[in-house]
């Protein structure tokens, strides 16, 4: 009787020891005597202890940081670049069977591809079209890692570090461009002001005594300081305007 009790106990321990829980975001790759025999979906699963082996693979998006790397652009400018790779496993069995460490392999391939792509573009393109360059890197990495069951969702270039001398040169160039734009804007404003003054002068000149009245209006707005003496050089037109006004008043009287 005790023999059957021990046998049942061993069977229960053996059965419970083979239970495995696969989370919703995982899949389990099963090897039986070292040979791939299937992939388990999420849930409570059971394997034969000592005969089968299960390796869980995370299907969520994984983020891998690529540390700062030195690269030389097409126009021979050394730059320091660091980036981030976003990828996920779409075929768990390939990620286990076809590459030893898919996360490390993907990051290393992204690093090599980044150097190659950056080496084929000029500095201006790298700075102004960063997203396009990152997309080109993603396409290369995604194509090469697809046999491993990897889907590269995005590659983001976080920082592009330039040599100190290049930074100073670019800052000086930017300052020159700002000064150039300021001079152009000021000149355009002066041209428009001159055009408006010309139009105003033409309108006032077309009206008899218009310029004289405009001058008198300007004089009226002045509030001289008692401690100062303001001297006006009145043109002949102003005097003629005053004379015309005086004669008009006399006629009315």
TrEMBL record:
<dbReference type="InterPro" id="IPR043202">
    <property type="entry name" value="Band-7_stomatin-like"/>
</dbReference>
<protein>
    <recommendedName>
        <fullName>Band 7 domain-containing protein</fullName>
    </recommendedName>
</protein>
<dbReference type="Pfam" id="PF01145">
    <property type="entry name" value="Band_7"/>
</dbReference>
<dbReference type="GO" id="GO:0005886">
    <property type="term" value="C:plasma membrane"/>
</dbReference>
<keyword id="KW-1133">Transmembrane helix</keyword>
<keyword id="KW-0472">Membrane</keyword>
<feature type="domain" description="Band 7">
    <location>
        <begin position="17"/>
        <end position="174"/>
    </location>
</feature>
<dbReference type="InterPro" id="IPR001972">
    <property type="entry name" value="Stomatin_HflK_fam"/>
</dbReference>
<dbReference type="GO" id="GO:0098552">
    <property type="term" value="C:side of membrane"/>
</dbReference>
<feature type="transmembrane region" description="Helical">
    <location>
        <begin position="6"/>
        <end position="22"/>
    </location>
</feature>
<dbReference type="InterPro" id="IPR036013">
    <property type="entry name" value="Band_7/SPFH_dom_sf"/>
</dbReference>
<comment type="similarity">
    <text>Belongs to the band 7/mec-2 family.</text>
</comment>
<keyword id="KW-0812">Transmembrane</keyword>
<dbReference type="InterPro" id="IPR001107">
    <property type="entry name" value="Band_7"/>
</dbReference>
